[in-house]
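Regression test case RT-17, inverse folding.

Input:
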């Protein structure tokens, strides 16, 4: 098996290195990742300027390719240029910070997995709750177990999955919950500050927190200390509205 491994925290991120070590139990790993942190860039791609890339080494060992672009760029370039053949699996992570709820839509980590799914390759994003002293080695073990379980179920080519691991899960044999993505709004507030020149600037916060929900989702399951697995789909069509809109009549001059 050939695995393309990427992330949005950059090629030198500890989560990427931890995931690489575990994934070698499954097959060959080709690392192609952004050269610098790209958190929150979503599915941005580079097309108005050239992309550059260089090989990165850890002593004598070749780590992979550092791409001066977005996570989606790294996947596109990895598949087109740097992998010795078409990958069988794309893994994005381990991200430093959860990618759950509506943050999925902003996440460069998830966007890299979506890009892999565009190519018809089974793709999985893996994220760990942020911590100054995050235990990425343990998180990678958990991530590998979930990835193995997914592959054992033989998902259709191009399937897309999102794995999140809370800090509480690292100290135990955690439970896995297969849950939908929460769509509750949060993170709408900004803190207004004033710089030394008297100019206002604004710092985004995570306030207010997601409202309580009676329905289980990735957000509620993570809060309870569970590892979460969510199957995703990048087709944004609201199919329930197609028939009503198509019924017409439409008059266009």
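Golden output:
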């Amino acid at each position: 098996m050939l695995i393309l491994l990427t992330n949005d925290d950059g090629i030198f991120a500890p989560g990427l290195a931890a995931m690489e070590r575990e994934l070698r139990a499954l097959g060959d790993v080709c690392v192609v990742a952004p050269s610098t942190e790209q958190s929150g860039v979503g599915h941005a791609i580079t097309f108005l300027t050239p992309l550059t890339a260089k090989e990165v080494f850890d002593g004598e060992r070749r780590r992979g390719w550092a791409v001066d672009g977005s996570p989606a760029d790294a996947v596109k370039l990895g598949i087109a240029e740097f992998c010795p053949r078409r990958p069988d699996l794309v893994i994005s992570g381990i991200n430093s910070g959860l990618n759950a709820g509506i943050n999925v839509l902003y996440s460069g980590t998830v966007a890299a997995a979506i890009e892999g799914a565009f190519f018809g390759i089974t793709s999985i994003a893996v994220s760990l709750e942020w911590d100054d002293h995050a235990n990425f080695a343990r998180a990678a073990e958990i991530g590998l177990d979930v990835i193995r379980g997914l592959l054992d179920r033989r998902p259709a080519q191009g399937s897309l999955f999102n794995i999140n691991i809370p800090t509480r899960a690292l100290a135990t044999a955690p439970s896995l919950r297969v849950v939908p993505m929460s769509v509750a709004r949060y993170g709408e507030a900004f803190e207004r500050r004033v710089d030394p020149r008297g100019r206002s600037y604004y710092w985004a916060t995570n306030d207010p927190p997601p409202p309580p929900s009676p329905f289980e989702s990735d957000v509620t399951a993570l809060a309870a200390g569970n590892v979460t697995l969510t199957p995703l789909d990048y087709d944004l069509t609201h199919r329930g509205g197609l028939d009503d809109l198509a019924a017409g009549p439409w008059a266009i001059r």
